[in-house]
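User: My instructor asked us to take a sequence, write out its structure as tokens, and then describe one feature of it. I'm not sure where to start. Here is the sequence I was given:
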Amino acid sequence: MALTDIDISVVIPLYNEEESLVKLYEWIDRVMTDNGFRYEVLFINDGSTDCSWQVIEQLHSTRPEIVHGICFRRNYGKSAALHYGFQRAQGQVVITMDADLQDSPDEIPELYRMITKDGYDVVSGWKKKRYDNRLTKNLPSLLFNATARRVTGIQLHDMNCGLKAYRQEVVKNIEVFSEMHRYIPFLAKNAGFTRIGEKVVQHRKREFGESKFGLNRFVNGYLDLLTLWFLNRFGKQPMHFFGLIGSLMFMLGFVAIIVVGGMKLYALQHGIHAMLVGTNPYFHLSILMMILGCMLFLAGFLGELVIRNSPNRNDYLVKEQI
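Assistant: Let's start with the prediction itself. The structure tokens for your sequence are:
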């Protein structure tokens, strides 16, 4: 099939989900057939230690023109799996979902319509009613998403939902790295795709196995959010951050050291007993601030040198040209 012949690419990252793969594919195939979609399914096996890959090979043997599989040598994480799937996807609309049957393929037709008819670049699912543990998952998720909305400016209730739909142009112009799969809408926004929508989707109870993510994902999520915010704000101009803070710290330290010296001279002129400048703690704090200010300034300067020599320093997303 040519590139434009495929309506939908379904990208499914997975890790040890052998029990659910056949049922998931049959469900996807039924939805696609009922709606007349031309489609492909890409299973990204992220280093599973069970028989997931053998199941994918079996599915591929029955529908080689539709079912495709990619197998990593070891577990690299969901971001790596999605990035590789996005590179291989050929559909006009790319839909991602988890392999644990908690995402319903019945949502696919409406997600497709919102991309192709309503003109959205990204549509994120919102699992408004969840069946997870309220204390360990729901409450941390609410706090996490509230923070993400505040920092990114994207008003999504469930930014980390695995069920999402993308215009093909979006997935071909973003890079999902580290653990940034939680913030793909933010990556898309930074790349210039600002039409980001949301759809309430069904959240189903897990039928097989157990969750592969622990509470540490929320801690890592906040750190990744700060990283993305910083790279978006100062990624091409690090001197604007480090240089500004470094200069302020140096000036404060310099002024403080003048004040300490002035107080000592005043005491000497008026015969007032005062401690030695070298034993004054404010003197050492002033010196420390000046040193830290210089180090931060140099960090910004070195960052500018690295960017200046980067082959991608002038890479910008061009929408169209005539």
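For the description part of your assignment, you could build on this observation: The chain has two domains: 3-234, 239-308. Try explaining in your own words what that tells you about the chain.
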